[in-house]
Specification:
Blueprint lengths: L6 E2 L3 E8 L5 E8 L7 E6 L12 H14 L1 E6 L5 E2 L2 E2 L11 H13 L5 E6 L1 H9 L7 E5 L8 H5 L7 E7 L7 H7 L7 E5 L9 H15 L16 E2 L3
Parallel strand pairs: 4-5, 4-8, 8-9, 9-10, 10-11
Antiparallel strand pairs: 1-12, 2-3, 3-5, 6-7
């Protein structure tokens, strides 16, 4: 069976609720490898909820559907405050990334509670702004940024990443709406160890299986390089397709 589209590979999946420091309950899902402990953890931060972003945005949903089986990753995805998706609606109201500091803290509290190993933040668009602003506040190995707009991210917030050992990987679409590769190289120059990866032909939303595979492969290359390259076929009979 070819791994593409809405295929969901085997994993242990659990609906979870995250409690923020200001008392809100956020809805989410934790997906773990079916038979082995996870080798690393991806905490997924979704695109802008006012433009349809949620824990069920396609790259985030597909990461949870595939990477526990293909790369032994734990994948935690959740709706930030005020965000709705088929999983449900998180309490609170969207706050343009300010109060969402507590949402990232709630996710990292669950990572600590479950003793999930080697956590990374994996942000997409608006989610990259949360990763850049709040990642340094938590014990993470690094962050993967998918289509970072850098619209709300100050040079000072970027420079924080230059200190210490946290890694930073940025996937920049060739035809992005907000930040293209040449400018990205300039903006991320304040973080000497940041790795800026141009993705030829891609746009901000990375629509299409070719780009989905590229993004997921780059996530795995950062979090668990010994697990690549990712296969495109799956032999197990208990994989299924989720049209949602």
């Amino acid at each position: 069976m070819e791994i593409r589209g809405a295929v969901v590979l085997p994993a242990r999946r659990e609906d979870v609720e995250l409690l923020t420091p200001d008392g809100l309950t956020l809805v989410g899902e934790l997906a773990l490898p079916e038979e082995r402990p996870p080798a690393a953890t991806a905490v997924m931060l979704h695109p802008l909820p006012t433009h349809g972003g949620s824990m069920d945005s396609h790259l985030i949903r597909k990461a949870a559907a595939r990477l526990p089986a293909l790369a032994d990753l734990a994948v935690l995805r959740f709706n930030t405050r005020g965000t709705s998706s088929p999983r449900g609606t998180s309490q609170g109201r969207f706050d343009r990334g300010d109060a969402e500091r507590g949402d990232v803290a709630a996710a990292m509290a669950l990572v600590a509670e479950r003793a999930l190993p080697r956590p990374w933040l994996v942000g997409w668009s608006f989610g990259t702004e949360l990763a850049l602003r709040y990642g340094p506040l938590h014990p993470i190995e690094g962050a993967v940024l998918i289509s970072p707009p850098l619209r709300r991210t100050s040079p000072e917030e970027l420079r924080v990443w230059a200190a210490g050992s946290r890694r930073l990987v940025a996937l920049i679409p060739e035809f992005d709406d907000y930040l293209r590769p040449a400018e990205a190289v300039e903006r991320f120059a304040v973080v000497p160890h940041a790795r800026v990866i141009p993705v030829a032909g891609a746009k901000h939303l990375f629509v299409g299986e070719t780009y989905t595979r590229r993004v997921l492969s780059e996530i795995v290359a950062a979090l668990r390089p010994d697990a690549g390259p990712l296969p495109v076929e799956w032999d197990e009979v208990n994989a299924h397709s989720d049209a949602g």
